[in-house]
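User: Quick sanity check before I run a bigger batch. Here is a single chain. Can you write out its predicted 3D structure?
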Amino acid sequence: MTELKTIGLFLVTALAEIVGCYLPYLWLREGKTIWLLVPAALSLAAFAWLLTLHPTASGRVYAAYGGVYIFMAIIWLWAVDGIRPTIWDLVGTAVALLGMAIIMFAPRSS
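Assistant: Done. Predicted structure follows.
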């Protein structure tokens, strides 16, 4: 069950980061209101806080988080940008998630 909690926490963390970066994108590139920076800042603050909830070394968390971020970014590509991922997007995502699993869930001696 710990593995499911870890993955769930990573998914929420990635969503917070993507939203926190997407909202300024809408302001800068799409001409939306500057007020989007307020929820963007809150989302990025939540992202940073969520990373602290993992009970392992920060460097390991940051390294493994990258794999889940890649997965969520590809989901975002499809769901929000309306672009269907290619087979290479999916293969790269699978490799990234495998790396995350190895980093986070490999047996440790200490």
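Residues 28 and 34 are 8 Å apart (CA to CA).

User: Great, the batch can go ahead then.
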